TrEMBL record:
Residues 38-57 are annotated as: Disordered. It comes from Kineosporia babensis. Residues 48-57 have a biased composition (Basic and acidic residues). Residues 7-301 form the FAD/NAD(P)-binding domain. This is NAD(P)/FAD-dependent oxidoreductase.
């Protein structure tokens, strides 16, 4: 067993973790830096997993986030290992392979894991998820010999994957408990537009469906539905959301709110020298003047940058950007920005051609979010209003 003293220890090799290391060095952070990742693959771009990578348009060797020689230039050690314990009093971290680290600053960037479906058979390991590059490899291998694929869930990952799988020539059915995809988050009009796009791509939608069980046999999977006909498929992709990977943080005694690590606008946790960033945090946003939970790629990078700057001693590094993301369903790009804690009214506005905008307002008529398709001017305007 080895024990090293490090100035910066980052737990997690996703966008938040890598961004933290980069920002730490760019801000003048000195000393030894180590990034410990349980993912065996070096940092990679996750958004293409449900789009270009799944369709075969982007090979693995084009998905890496690291430039040639970047780890060496950053003077950071990449450790493919799993952290098993964090003692915030001793400022000590232990790992599965027996290594130990005493840190000056530690950043939790542990991300999220795909959620199971809470029904009989919903935790079957043979069901496919799509979160990591290895998940993507498994999905591509599974559908290569399949004719029918069922996607359970109508979030953006589910919709993106359903469209991509259909473009591979597979018979795709998408099962959702919503009456149209993303209706609960984006409103009925936007949900109807997304449903229309999926139908154009040849995806069969089963809406308003409650899954009661998943039964797998040697010929595929039967999806049992309450009050509707069962759905049968060779392959099933679960896309029913994620759960933050905060078990380690909770065991370490960090303040946690509804399964997420509580941090301030500088990404500082309740423990001295410990920061957190990305999907795992319940973070104070200065512009919103309240804590927010966000699961977006762009925001994970932003939070990671702030955590790295804070660790390097930058006092005015704070989170104030409106959260947001882009989603590609087929060849259609949606752009979304919102504070993410609800709205009172969704105002749907048609644009030229197929363009549209949805303006989200609170009870006082204040803009709290926007969704656009082919309406970048409205997106930019709303982003300024949110800011």
């Amino acid at each position: 067993m080895t024990d090293e003293v490090v100035d910066l220890l980052v737990i997690g090799g996703g966008p938040a973790g890598l961004s933290a290391v980069r920002a730490y060095r760019e801000a003048g952070g000195k000393g030894r830096a180590v990034l410990v990742s349980a993912d065996p693959d070096a940092p990679y771009d996750r958004p293409p997993l449900s789009k270009d990578f799944l369709r075969g348009d982007q090979p693995e060797d084009e998905m890496g986030l690291l430039d040639d020689g970047e780890l060496s230039r950053l003077e950071v050690t990449w450790a493919s290992d799993r952290v098993t314990s964090v003692d915030t009093g001793r400022k000590h971290v232990g790992t599965r392979d027996g290594s130990g680290y005493t840190y000056r600053h530690c950043v939790f960037a542990t991300g999220s894991n795909p959620a199971d479906l809470p029904v009989p058979g919903g935790d079957d390991s043979a069901l496919l998820r799509l979160r990591t590059l290895e998940d993507g490899r498994r999905l591509k291998a599974a559908v290569a010999g399949a004719k029918t694929v069922a996607v359970i869930g109508s979030g953006f990952i589910g919709c993106e994957a359903a469209s991509s799988l259909r473009r591979l020539g597979l018979d795709v059915v998408q099962v959702t408990n919503e009456f149209s995809p993303q209706e609960n988050r984006l409103g009925a009009e936007a949900g109807a537009r997304i449903a229309g796009w999926l139908a154009e791509d040849g995806v069969r939608l089963v809406t308003g469906a409650t899954v009661t069980a998943l039964d797998r046999d040697e010929n595929g999977v039967s999806i049992r539905l309450d009050g509707q006909d069962d759905v049968r498929a060779d392959v099933v992709l679960l896309a029913v959301g994620v759960r933050p990977a905060t078990e380690l943080a909770a065991e370490a005694g960090l303040a946690v709110h509804e399964g997420r690590i509580v941090v301030d606008a500088h990404m500082r946790t309740s423990a001295e020298g410990v920061l957190a960033a990305g999907d795992v945090v319940y973070a104070l946003n200065n512009a919103a003047a309240r804590q927010l939970s966000v699961e977006h790629w762009f925001d994970a990078e932003t939070m990671g940058r702030i955590a790295g700057q804070t660790a390097a001693g930058v006092e005015d590094a704070t989170w104030s950007d409106p959260p947001g993301f882009w989603s590609q369903i087929g060849d259609r790009w949606l752009k979304y920005a919102a504070w993410g804690d609800g709205y009172v009214e969704a105002l749907y506005e048609e644009g030229e051609g197929d363009a549209f905008t949805v303006w989200y307002q609170d009870g006082d008529g204040t803009c709290v979010g926007v969704l656009t398709y082919l309406a970048d001017e409205n997106y930019d305007k709303a982003f300024r209003l949110l800011s």
